Amino acid sequence: IFSSPDEVSQASPTPSEMEIMIVDQSLSIPDDMQLQLREMAEQWQDIEANRILISFGDKAKTVIPGGSWPEVGNTASNLMDALILGRSYLKEDQGRIVVVSDGNIDSILSLEETMREIAERGYVIDAIPLNFDRTSEISVDQMIAPSRVWEGSDFQVSLPIWTETDGDVTIRFFINGSLVNEETRLLNAGKNIANFLVESSEPGFLDIYAEVESKHDLLFENNRSFSIVRVFPSPKVTIISKTTNIASKFAIVLEENGLDVDIIPPEDLDQEISHNVENQVFVLHNILAENLTNEQLLLLETSIYKQGNGLLVLGGRNAYTLGGYENSVLETMLPVSLEPPPRSERNPATFILVIDRSISMGCRRYPSAPINLALEAAMRSIEILEPENNISVLSFSDDVRWDVPISRVGDGITLRSVLDAISRINCGEGTAMYAAMQEILRMANLIETEDQIYILMLTDGQAGDGSFDMFEDLVLGSKKKNLTISTIALGEDADLELMSAIAEWGGGRFHPLLNAGQLPRIMVSESSAVRSENVQEGETNLLAADITHPILTGVEVAELPFLVSYNALTSKSQQGAEDVLLSANFRDPILSVWQYGLGRVAAWTCDIGEEWLLEDWRTTSPSMEELWIQTIQYTLPKSSHDEIEVEYKVGINDVELFVYLKDPAGVPLNFNDVEFVFGDANVKLQRMSMEQVAPGTYKVKFTRPDEGAYHGIIRYSYEGKTIEYIEPLVINYPSELMLTKLEGGTDNLQKWAEATGGKITSFDELLEDEELSPEIVIQKVVLNWVFPITVLLWILDIAVRRQWLPWKY
Question: N or C: which end of the chain has fewer CB within 10 A?
Fold first, then answer.
């Protein structure tokens, strides 16, 4: 009123003269301190006309002089937006920003990039750290609990608790609204863990809430945590095994974790699959491919590929290449290749064939006689050996004869001479099996090498010499540690008990065959073991190929037992397989998985403790137990609604929900009316239509609810039916209030100030000895006195003119 236009223009600051104060109003600043900050900031602003205040929390807004402070939300410290807003008031190379904060800031990395830009523009940042006593403060981190468990299984919930000082606290756990555990315990300064064991009694959801109470705590908002655990019906695990004593120990571990486990012999597999049980995992326990018929293997493949069940293949001396999986349905299903891994150098091995040429094997003049098929298979098995390997052939009837002495396989003439010698073998009379075994082991002990010696014995009858005990003493008494004996029992008249026992004593494989037509495949598979060195000897530990893989959740890889041997196979990672664990010595795949149609297949290339694990993991390695449970869980479909995937993205103010829909064949479902029904903390239902944003992908955004455990319902249609899927949502307190985050704030402010040439200051320093400028004095006089008086006189003038004052008359 009393200023000229020129004076008024001088009172309006230009950008080059601007000073910005950015004031933290987030939840980590106590309410009484927030009020004090506002008063001191306004006092600072009043001193000069070129000063602007910006308030920040979730958002950043300019404070209008003389007005109320804007609502900015308090669940985050969005300093980056505040700096960007403040920077917009400043001219290039000139300007000063004062940051008033505790330094507990979101998006540190992005913020530091903004700080560098501010420094490059020549702006200076001073900082006023907000320090207050947190010695009695307690906070909890996010509760650690599995997202899914099986009905009837026990699981542990862990609550990390941080405290600045030692002291007693009360810890409470609630499940579905009911208090289930309360205890008072002494916490030590730093990080503490409160564990609670939960039993999942029936399918559904377990809403878990935990809180910590302390008499001297400053903030209760950071003392609670929420989690939701989905409980699935217990899946059916069927172990197919011929050694139930080993399989039963493995089954006990699974049963203790809530799984329904059966152990069946291979011949019962087709009956098990015919029951068409959903949510099922099949486990092949170190069995030979020949133990399963082609029909059974095709049924198994259909169950995995089309019905979405799972398969876990366990290793051992009867599995993979050693088990004759080559050229079978199993080879196609596996996430590993049966080819041996590349090695710079392989040690030569010795392959000794022992062939029964007794009268029961038939005469050579009949093409279909077992002896002819056996010799043909023997020649095929030798042809695939590497030239540097050694070969020997011994045949027996009523006498024992070395048809091919131990010699290099070689190639060309050398190989041809070996094959010719085999072709000249003729049948005899009796079955001197014990004498043959004596001669083999005598010769094996004379071989001065540490290289592996493989013996394969074929017979169709009973031993004409030697008892069961004599064979046992003979084989077990062999001094050779690098000796493996496998056996083939051909036909119904063979001594299955003895041949099986010899293979067990010799650490090899036992192949019971009903007809000679299977001989070529079996003998070639045994030869492959020699050719490729599919058993990698030597102690090794395990490495994580991808530590973030879901199977390794909660698994301490360093605590897994050492392996002394394993089936050395090649990764199929280039074909889509995921290698989870590798051997430390050669980086060979030990645990690999992949998607096979609608189901999943996992391959473990070691055994489960028969001979290849260094220790009994059932008593010494909890992480190994966890690994098996996680692997079984991974091979199962995600849920009974495997055609839907749901993802929440929880932001500071909003939540984005993404839903991915597909049909059973994996084709995206497009143009669907997808609805999301959500109940907030006040049990008020919200119905939201979801927008399609990509093939099979639907999205909706809604306001972030208060802390708590929620259940959203997703509705969509498929083939004329309405399908509902429940997906839980957990909202925990803002990271703004984490005690571990509150401690480094002053260091952050110091670093940012130094980076821009600024300093750490205080309100006392800023306000000390400062006087109001003439422009501010004029404005204050106008605002505080002249302007109110003028308004009163104006009102009085109107009253007089309109005769509102009766006493005047």
Answer: C
What letter would DSSP give residue 784? I
Q: What is the DSSP string of 493-558?
A: TS-HHHHHHHHHHTEEEEEEESSGGGHHHHHHHHHHHHHHT-EEEEEE-EEES-TTSGGGTT--GG
User: For residues 478 and 485, what is the distance between their CA atoms, to the nearest angstrom?
Assistant: 11
**Model pLDDT, residue 336:** 97
Domain 350-532 bears CATH identifier 3.10.310.10: no
CA distance 617 to 623: 9
Q: Are 295 and 254 in contact (CB under 8 A)?
A: no
State the pLDDT confidence band at 187, using cuts at 50, 70 and 90. Answer: very high
Element (H, E) at 473: helix 468-476
Q: What is the maximum span of the chain, computed from C-alpha positions, in angstroms?
A: 153
- pLDDT at residue number 235: 81
Cα–Cα separations (whole angstroms), residue 19 to 13, 53, 80, 118, 521: 10, 9, 17, 14, 86
Asked whether residue 388 carries a pLDDT value surpassing 70, the answer given is: yes
CA-to-CA dists, residue 577 to 570, 573, 645, 808, angstroms: 11, 4, 21, 100
Span 462-484, average pLDDT: 86
The angle that helices 79-87 and 108-120 make with each other, rounded to 10 degrees, is 20
> Is the domain 138-232 a CATH 1.10.10.10 member?
no
What is the predicted pLDDT for the residue at 781? Answer: 52
Calculate Rg over the CA atoms of the chain: 39
Count of beta carbons in the 10 Å neighbourhood of residue 386: 14
For residue range 214-271, what is the model confidence (pLDDT) as tens digits? 988 877 889 999 999 999 888 889 999 998 888 998 999 898 887 889 999 999 998 8
- Per-residue pLDDT for 14 more than 50? no
Domain boundaries, the chain: 5-130+744-770, 138-232, 236-341+536-635, 350-532, 644-730
Range 39-67 burial, b when 16+ CB lie within 10 A, else e = ebbbebbbbbbbbbbbbbbbbbbbbeeee
Equal fold, 236-341+536-635 vs 350-532: yes
- Tens of pLDDT, residue by residue over 544-571, are 998 888 899 878 898 899 999 999 999 9
Query: Which regions of 254-368 does DSSP assign to beta strands (E)?
Result: 260-264, 280-285, 310-314, 336-337, 350-356
What number is the average pLDDT over the span 345-372?
A: 80
The Cα–Cα gap between 123 and 95 comes to 5
CATH 2.60.40.10 fits 644-730, yes or no: yes
Average pLDDT, the chain: 85
Percent of the chain with pLDDT over 90: 42
**Burial class (CB within 10 angstroms; exposed 0-12, middle 13-18, buried 19+) of 127:** buried
Give the number of other CB atoms < 10 A from CB of residue 518.
Answer: 18
pTM summary value = 0.58
Examine the pLDDT at 690 and tell me if it is beyond 80.
yes
Which tokens is 463 given? 């031993």
CATH class held by domain 236-341+536-635: alpha beta
Instruction: Report strand pairing: 336-337 vs 570-571.
Output: antiparallel
Which pLDDT belongs to residue 619? 74
- The CA distance from 278 to 602, in Å, is 18
Distance CA 319, CA 325 (A): 7
Q: Do 269 and 299 form a contact (C-beta atoms < 8 A)?
A: yes
Give CA torsion, residues 100, 104, 105, 107, to 10 deg: 160
- Do 197 and 156 meet the contact criterion of CB atoms below 8 Å apart? yes
pLDDT tens, 58-92? 899 999 998 999 999 888 888 989 999 998 898 87
State the fold for domain 5-130+744-770: Rossmann fold (3.40.50)
E-assigned strands of 412-460?
Answer: 453-459
* Partners of 594 in the β-ladder: 601
